[in-house]
Write a structure and sequence with these properties.
Strand content: 35-45%
Order of helices and strands: EEEEEHHEEHEE
Number of helices: 3
Radius of gyration: 16 Å
Oligomer: single chain
């Protein structure tokens, strides 16, 4: 299952579930779920994001989510809509948001430390090849399928009060 994880998440994403959707008997998409775990083993992170900047037509920035481990301080990009979404990577609809646009995420109780789990959807290798690579072979290779998300669900669990919620649920194509 770990070979089905987008490259930017490989070192921090522990797969707990893998499902394939079929269309006319052929794999169309894969749903990969799991937990974010720092390379040091810690499961608690602070989160920074650019809120809803992707809806500001003057900016053209996609959603950017960055996390920092509360134990060792390593920072990871969980998602950059300009790089990791079909709309951003394939269609070119977004630019990466600048670092200074990010704000800290907090729970209603005021805590800023969370456990994070993700579910991502990617096209199957063959479907991506047929839909994207054949249309633009100079930009894309078959192996790129795993890095182009068509859906993202981010779940957060507060370290202080235990409140858990689906924070981001976003179709990306």
């Amino acid at each position: 299952m770990q070979n089905s994880v987008p490259y930017h998440l490989k070192n921090i994403f522990t797969v707990t579930n893998f499902e394939t959707d079929y269309c006319q008997g052929k794999p169309e998409t894969h749903h990969i779920s799991g937990d974010v775990v720092c390379e040091c083993g810690c499961r608690r992170f602070t989160i920074r994001h650019n809120e809803n900047c992707e809806y500001d037509t003057n900016l053209h920035y996609g959603l950017l989510i960055s996390t920092t481990c509360t134990e060792c301080g390593r920072t990871y990009t969980l998602f950059d809509e300009a790089l990791h979404s079909y709309d951003g990577a394939v269609c070119g609809d977004y630019e990466s948001a600048p670092e200074n646009s990010l704000v800290g995420y907090k729970c209603g109780c005021g805590c800023d430390k969370f456990e994070i789990s993700l579910t991502v959807e990617v096209m199957s290798r063959d479907f991506f090849t047929d839909e994207v690579v054949k249309a633009d072979p100079d930009r894309f290779k078959t192996e790129d399928y795993i890095n182009v998300l068509t859906w993202l669900l981010v779940r957060v669990g507060c370290d202080e009060c235990g409140e858990a919620a689906d924070w981001i649920d976003l179709e990306l194509s």
